[in-house]
């Protein structure tokens, strides 16, 4: 008998697979990094709907791997499955990019293209997810264990490198590059589309070098069929019922004892998976709720450097690369040295605690963030502030309500909005204005749930008032809002960064989003023929999250700006999000990586794909939980964060109790048991048939065990 020598050369085909994975992960995480802000600022959905659709997409991405595994192992094989679904993936990216072009149809068209694109992307990324890593493992000989382990390390690094780079680059493409007058989402989605095209081309380019295993049947389907047969057979009953200790033993009439025993081992682990979705419900909110929180924070680092709210997600990928060696080489050995037994299930429980602490930190941050937010008025009420542009101080009374008991100084920055009782959907109220003993009246109609600024001015016959509706919502990307009130005699054209304002005399311009920054030399022109320049305006700092009204008064023959802050600037620095990212990433290292190792170590060789499918489903159901809470609960954000933290702590207690009853097993013991049995009963025809079935199952397992 000749022994096959094991090759030590590293397969060249691995280079194509690693580059493919880097580009694919760049395209996926790059697109996903800006997705929530795309819903919020481009499609103009509210925060709850944006969060719900984001997590619905994430959930679908983790349901579709089961479909990809079935297609690869039952029909097409991994190579063809990767190619065909990568093409679907590319089409999805292209459709998504086209949907972000403002000139392509109306809002309904944009929404339709976006949803179709996301569904195709979910089918593509989820479908190839279980295939690429396993296909890379197939390139090595069975005995090349060291080389295969090195490949998976490189493969893992390519995933994190693609994720880290994309979450830095695509937010820059979104905000720093302007197209069609606004943030360039078409480019932010287009570059990931190009990377996915590159990924597909690179993978196909290596086709002549790949070792391809033909499809040999899907173990997951066999497991489902065996369970279904056991349930069906048990429902019918049998005279041998007393000899069946477990409900799965009812499948012995058709399936081998070894397969049934392996399924029992898998089910014991799957039962432990039941509480796990709650961890992912918290973890995946880094790209939704935490990104939305970042938009309401101060993102400046010094005078000239600022970070994008969607770039904070890069911390997770960066910290993973830092924490994995620290935990493996330092923390776990130190804990073990203290004679504390470190088991996989204990690590996972600790990971849940750290994730809950991360949401506790997010709650503290949120409580401070909302201090600068103006809450909309409830039904039957509206919000009101007053600008006094008349000479001298004034006192204002609205109907029977004395909301402003103190005198209002000329060009005084309103301290805050006051709540005006309407007790109806709309109401016409008399406004009484008094100055130096002279009283004037005017009437205005107020509508519920809106915010207003009342502009009080004077003329030769007394006071006059004008009511303008305000926008109190902060921008989706954290930039400030700006508008101008022109009290000069001439219309004025103003350029603030990329934003252009044309303000007729006596009018208020609409709110526009402008880039955060210092504006000390703002261009000002009087639009005559030819245009007449006016002295440059000094607007000072326009800070993150604020809404400003600049009143232009004619002084000494030139317009002079008086800046009012309607909505306060974000005063909590985005660096305060770092602790919650650190805690969450520590939780991920202990929970996610350990969970994968645990499920692999507790599964028979040909059942690892089944547990991989179960693990991915926990991620999918975790996103479903967020979807339900975001759309159904209607809670304040800090209360929602606190709720998730409390729920995970409760789930952690349940999981710890379940884990205390779990007995670790060695799946390799099955090989010894069944090899001995097959040797003793080799001449028995019934057992020979069972052995053949085992061999078929083992062959099927080779395609999915990685």
From TrEMBL:
PROSITE patterns in the record: PTR2_1 (PS01022), PTR2_2 (PS01023)
Membrane topology: Multi-pass membrane protein
Transmembrane regions listed in the UniProt entry: 26-45, 51-71, 83-105, 111-132, 153-173, 185-210, 265-283, 314-337, 349-370, 610-630, 642-665
Major localization class: membrane
SUPFAM superfamilies per the UniProt record, alphabetical: MFS general substrate transporter
Residue spans of biased composition, Basic and acidic residues class: 686-696
Signal peptide: none
Alphabetical GO biological process terms: oligopeptide transport; protein transport
Organism listed in the record: Xyrichtys novacula
UniProt-annotated location(s): Membrane
Protein name listed in UniProt: Solute carrier family 15 member 2
Pfam families named among the record's database cross-references: PTR2
């Amino acid at each position: 008998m000749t022994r096959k020598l094991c090759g030590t050369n590293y397969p060249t085909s691995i280079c194509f697979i690693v580059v493919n994975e880097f580009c694919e992960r760049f395209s996926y995480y790059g697109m996903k990094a800006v997705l929530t802000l795309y819903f919020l600022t481009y499609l103009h959905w509210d925060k709850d709907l944006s969060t719900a659709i984001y997590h619905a997409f994430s959930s679908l991405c983790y349901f579709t791997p089961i479909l990809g595994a079935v297609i690869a192992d039952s029909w097409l094989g991994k190579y063809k499955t990767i190619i065909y679904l990568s093409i679907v993936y590319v089409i999805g990216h292209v459709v998504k990019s086209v949907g972000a072009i403002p000139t392509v149809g109306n809002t309904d068209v944009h929404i339709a293209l976006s949803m179709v694109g996301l569904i195709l992307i979910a089918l593509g990324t989820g479908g190839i997810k279980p295939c690429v890593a396993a296909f890379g493992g197939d390139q090595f000989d069975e005995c090349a264990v060291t080389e295969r382990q090195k490949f998976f390390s490189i493969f893992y690094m390519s995933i994190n490198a693609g994720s880290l780079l994309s979450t830095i680059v695509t937010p820059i493409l979104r905000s720093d590059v302007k197209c069609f007058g606004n943030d360039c989402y078409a480019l932010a989605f287009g570059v990931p589309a190009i990377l996915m095209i590159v990924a597909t081309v690179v993978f196909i380019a290596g086709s002549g070098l790949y070792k391809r295993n033909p499809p040999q049947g899907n173990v997951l389907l066999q497991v489902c069929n065996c369970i279904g047969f056991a349930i069906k057979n048990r429902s019918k009953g049998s005279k041998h019922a007393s000899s069946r200790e477990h409900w799965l033993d009812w499948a012995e009439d058709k399936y081998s004892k070894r397969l049934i025993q392996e399924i029992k081992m898998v089910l014991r682990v799957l039962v432990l998976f039941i509480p796990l979705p709650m961890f992912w419900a918290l973890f995946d909110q880094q790209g939704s709720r935490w990104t939305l929180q970042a938009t309401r924070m101060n993102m400046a680092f010094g005078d000239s450097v600022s970070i994008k709210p969607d770039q904070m997600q890069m911390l997770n990928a960066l910290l993973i690369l830092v924490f994995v060696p620290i935990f493996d080489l330092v923390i776990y050995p130190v804990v073990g040295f203290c004679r504390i037994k470190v088991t996989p299930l204990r690590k996972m429980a600790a990971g849940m605690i750290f994730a809950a602490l991360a949401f506790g930190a997010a709650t503290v941050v949120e409580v401070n963030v909302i201090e600068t937010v103006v809450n909309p008025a409830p039904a039957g009420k509206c919000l009101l502030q007053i600008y006094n542009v008349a000479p001298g101080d004034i006192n204002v009374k609205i109907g029977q309500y004395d909301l402003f008991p103190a005198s209002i100084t000329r060009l005084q920055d309103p301290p805050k909005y006051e709540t005006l009782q309407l007790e109806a959907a709309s109401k016409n109220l008399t406004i009484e204005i008094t100055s130096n003993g002279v009283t004037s009246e005017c009437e205005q109609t107020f509508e519920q749930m809106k915010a207003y600024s009342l502009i009080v001015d004077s003329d030769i016959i007394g006071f006059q008032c004008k009511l303008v509706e305000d926008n109190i919502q902060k921008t989706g990307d954290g930039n400030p809002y700006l508008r101008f009130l022109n009290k000069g005699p001439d219309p004025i054209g103003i350029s603030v960064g990329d934003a252009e304002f044309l303000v007729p005399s006596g009018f208020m311009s609409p709110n526009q989003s402008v880039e955060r920054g210092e504006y000390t030399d703002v261009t000002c022109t009087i639009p005559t023929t030819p245009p007449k320049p006016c002295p440059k305006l000094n607007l000072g700092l326009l800070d993150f999250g604020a809404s400003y009204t600049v009143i232009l008064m004619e002084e000494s023959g030139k317009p002079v700006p008086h800046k009012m802050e309607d909505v306060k600037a974000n005063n909590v620095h985005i660096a305060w999000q770092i602790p919650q990212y650190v805690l969450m990433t520590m939780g991920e290292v202990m929970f996610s990586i350990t969970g994968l190792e645990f499920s692999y170590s507790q599964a028979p060789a040909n059942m690892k794909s089944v547990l991989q499918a179960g693990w991915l489903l926990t991620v999918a159901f975790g996103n479903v939980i967020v979807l339900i809470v975001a759309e159904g609960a209607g809670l304040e954000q800090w209360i929602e964060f606190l709720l998730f933290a409390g729920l995970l702590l409760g789930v952690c207690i349940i999981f710890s109790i379940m884990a205390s009853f779990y007995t670790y097993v060695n799946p390799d013991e099955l090989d010894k048991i069944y090899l001995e049995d097959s040797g003793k009963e080799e001449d028995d025809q019934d057992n020979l048939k069972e052995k053949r079935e085992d061999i078929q199952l083992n062959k099927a397992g080779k395609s999915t065990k990685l």
